[in-house]
Amino acid sequence: MVTDAPAVSYPVGRTTALARVLLGLALAGWLLAMLVFIGPAALVWRAPAAMLLIVVNLLTTAVLWRFWQGQRPRQLCWDGQHWQLREAAALAEPDGQGARVQVRLDAQHWMLLWFHDPAAARASWLWAQASHDPVRWHLLRCALYSAAPLAAGSPADASRA
Predict the structure, then answer these.
(1) Where are the domains of the chain?
(2) Letter string b/e over residues 10-24, b meaning 16 or more CB atoms within 10 A of that residue's CB
(3) What is the mean pLDDT of the segment spanning 21-34?
(4) Which of 7, 12, 99, 122 could join 117 in a cystine, given CB atoms 3.0 to 4.6 angstroms apart?
């Protein structure tokens, strides 16, 4: 896959904005559980609903914490043909053949990305934020959103002949 997007290397990982987003999500859930728990006593369903919300919030908080722990400093690299995810301290670079990156959430100044390398045991969620490197942010966005060229022999190729 060759695109017109320029090569770019961009830092991904933990930021204070990510910490705020995750903390906000966790606190919103706990606030809702507290409001249900201290709600009017006439509501018969109040206690069971509050207990359910507490269990859900415990699980959600654990998932958010695990996501936070997985966000370590790395470099997401596009060489014009392949994606690579390099550890900050790693000396050897992974092959990156066949790796894919998908934008799962784009808030213009930050993105939640899903990186999948078929050679790796599992996929990785990545947090990218414009303030990490404002100069290269546009280049990263171009690489992520550039359309893959049509394969040879596709109907569009036939119409050019």
Answers:
(1) 8-13+74-145, 16-69
(2) bbbbbbebbeebbee
(3) 86
(4) 99
Residue type present at position 103: V
- Dihedral, CA atoms, 116, 102, 11, 129, nearest 10 degrees? -140
Give the CA dihedral 12, 13, 14, 16, nearest 10 degrees.
Answer: 10
pLDDT of residue 123: 84
Contact 119, 94 (CB under 8 A): yes
98-149 confidence digits (pLDDT tens) = 788 999 999 999 999 999 888 777 888 899 999 888 889 999 999 998 844 4
> Is 101 within 8 Å of 85 (Cβ atoms)?
no
Q: What is the mean pLDDT of the chain?
A: 78
Residue type, 55: V
Pair 38, 69: CB distance under 8 Å: no
Give the amino acid at 14: R
Element (H, E) at 101: strand 100-106
